[in-house]
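Board notes (copied after class):
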Amino acid sequence: MAKINTILFDCDNTLVLSEELAFEGCAELINEIAATKNVPLQEPFTGDKLITEFVGQNFRGMMVSLQQRYSFSMTPDELNDYVRREEDVVIAKLKAKATSCPGVDAVLERLAAQKEYHLAVVSSSALRRVQASIDKVGQAKYFGGDVFSAATSLPTPTSKPDPAIYLHAMKTLGKSAEECVAVEDSKSGTLSGTRAGIKVIGYVGPYKDDEKVKMEKVLREAGAVVVMQDWSEFEGILAKI
């Protein structure tokens, strides 16, 4: 059995507390799209509502789901234009307000000092957004150029739970699934890693207290081999895996 030598981190709400900021900006844009397309929403989308329904998906994935749900369509050019606008809105919010997930910076610093593991980021979000997030909180130095985006790094943009971005990251890094472990906070992310054959550590730290028990069950059912509440548990979990 191959020794684990590579750690693949999701970004949003795993490394950086970005989901609430991103979904806040996203909701404003989706409500505008609904108005433009005459979609009869019972009530406008809020950031919280989008998080509940779409956590772990990128904006393009959300728009595909919403077009199916509300029976409207947009041209590829329209969709690409909205994707660019959403990136700009979210990046502005992240550059202003993003912070690290509690405890993760100390873990990254120790892992980098040990030099035992290759560290990379594997996200559904657009590369510009991921880079803005890790730049803002000072984490970019740990990953070099090894930042992979399902929205940007693939020939055809996709979103987790499609395993394509994990498969691409492993191929680019020259790693097998047996050599890797992933850290994910969402069902779609956990499914993506698991479907690529990677052991996934679930992380429920950023969820509200009343949601943590539910999300732990969701992540386990999606294939997480273990679920951690806090980054202080990570190195102990990694040693066991």
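Comment from the instructor: The first strand starts at residue 6 and ends at 9. The first helix runs from residue 19 to 36.
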